[in-house]
From TrEMBL:
It is found in: Cell membrane. One of its GO terms (cellular component) is plasma membrane protein complex. Belongs to the ABC-4 integral membrane protein family. LolC/E subfamily. The chain crosses the membrane at residues 15-41, 264-288, 308-332, 374-393. This is Lipoprotein-releasing ABC transporter permease subunit. Residues 25-236 form the MacB-like periplasmic core domain. Pfam families: FtsX, MacB_PCD. InterPro entries: ABC3_permease_C, Lipoprotein-release_system, LolCE_TM, MacB_PCD. Its main location: membrane. It comes from the Bacteria. The lineage of its organism: Bacteria, Pseudomonadati, Pseudomonadota, Alphaproteobacteria, Hyphomicrobiales. It is a multi-pass membrane protein. It comes from Roseibium limicola.
Length: 407
């Protein structure tokens, strides 16, 4: 009751309540900011991981010593390994993609129609056209951003130029060939939507002079984090000289940089909560000085040091607990509506806040991690409780005689 009365503002004590209000606001904003930023960082990692692995596979098998001509048998054996979803042979090469509006460097990947349908990130995001009779036709599938930059749409022709063409007495000549666009997909990662060109496997083998060979076999598994455990079984299943690399080896620099950035952001934002906790200390110390006469009267009426200490512990803890709860609710609401908020702010300021060409993704992602959120809440509550100990201890140590000497 006493703690509640101290928190409520009266005309003479407005300044104390204002400080309590600032402390509450600081805790709320600190907790909300931590939850929002950590959720966005987690969302970035999950989205990028899903899109990078969704199109590049979890493990890559590449031949050594001899060409990979027995790729169908290798893929069949790999798919018999437990936890393997699919094994997809592919031909890959770089080339120049030319259209009416310009030229782009492209990554041409040849896969069969059956295997292309087993890549949900591509087959599930077709915006125009389809993959019907993909193997029988001589068409290609490109991303939406490539289509925009080349100025083509469904049914238009693009020209592919490969530096490795026919060998003539004058040397190797580039290979130039036109292909109709039979499908346009949108993965949602700007880098991939502007780079990848899918064509039938047999056509890619001919275009890149691969004959009956393939570049490698991509393997998709149920749990990407278990690729290290599965490596031995997969190497036994391949049963031929080959190099096996997983997604962690191929993307180690990128994901390490994301993890470092995430940890640094957590430390920086933790300081916001710490500053808010220090505001609680300053506010309570001023409250103790202002309530010195009240404390002295309570002590002379028989209140123990522990009772006085509990009054101020409850006062400070109330600010911290309510501020933490409000911050959690605010952070949750923002995370659940982060994309709508981004679009509204972009419309309000007439600027593009989240440029897909810079951030790879076309939408602002947010993924709330339950364990991480609980850690933030516990940390804020502990800091708030620790911040109340010293002012409460000072209040309990106050000598009633000294406090009332000049009253």
């Amino acid at each position: 009751m006493i703690a509640g009365r101290y928190l409520r503002s009266r005309r003479k004590e407005t300044f104390i309540s204002v400080i309590a209000g600032f402390s509450f606001t600081g805790i709320m904003l600190g907790v909300a900011t931590l939850i929002i930023v950590m959720a966005v960082m987690n969302g970035f990692r999950a989205e990028l991981l899903g899109k990078i692995l969704g199109i590049n596979g979890h493990m890559l098998v590449q031949p050594i010593d001899s060409p990979l001509t027995d790729y169908e048998a290798v893929a069949t054996r790999l798919e018999d390994v437990p936890e393997v979803i699919s094994a997809i042979p592919f031909v890959e090469g770089q080339g120049l993609v030319s259209g009416p509006s310009g030229n782009l460097g492209g990554l041409v990947r040849g896969v069969s129609e059956t295997d292309l349908r087993r890549i949900p990130l591509v087959s599930g995001n077709v915006r125009l056209g389809s993959f019907d009779d993909f193997d029988a036709g001589a068409g290609v599938a490109i991303g939406t951003r490539m289509a925009e930059q080349l100025g083509v749409t469904l049914g238009d022709n693009i020209t592919l130029i490969s530096p490795r063409g026919n060998i003539t007495p004058m040397g190797m000549t580039p290979r130039i060939k036109g292909y109709p666009v039979t499908a346009i997909f949108e993965i949602g990662m700007s880098e991939y939507d502007a780079t990848f060109v899918f064509m039938p496997l047999s056509e890619a083998q001919g275009f890149f002079n691969m004959d009956e060979r393939v570049t490698g076999v991509e393997v998709y598994v149920t749990d990407p984090d278990r690729v290290g455990i599965m490596r031995a079984a997969m190497e036994d299943a391949i049963d031929r000289p080959a190099i096996v690399s997983d997604w962690r080896q191929r993307n180690v620099t990128f994901f390490s940089a994301l993890e470092v950035e995430r940890n640094v952001m957590f430390i920086i934002l933790f300081l916001i909560v710490l500053v808010a906790a220090l505001n609680i200390i300053s506010g309570l110390i001023m409250l103790v000085k202002d309530k010195g006469r009240d404390i002295a009267i309570l002590r002379t009426m028989g209140a123990s040091r522990g009772a006085i200490m509990r009054v101020f512990l409850i006062t400070g803890a109330s600010i911290g607990c309510v501020g933490t709860l409000a911050g959690f609710v605010l952070g949750l609401v923002v995370c659940l509506n982060i994309e709508s908020i981004r679009q509204f702010v972009s419309w309000l300021t007439s600027t593009q806040l989240f440029d897909p060409t810079l951030y790879f993704l076309s939408k602002l992602p947010a993924k709330i991690d339950n364990g991480e959120t609980v850690t933030v809440l516990v940390m804020a509550l502990v800091l708030s409780l620790l911040a109340t100990i010293y002012p409460a201890w000072r209040a309990a140590r106050l000598d009633p005689v000294e406090a009332l000497r000049y009253e």
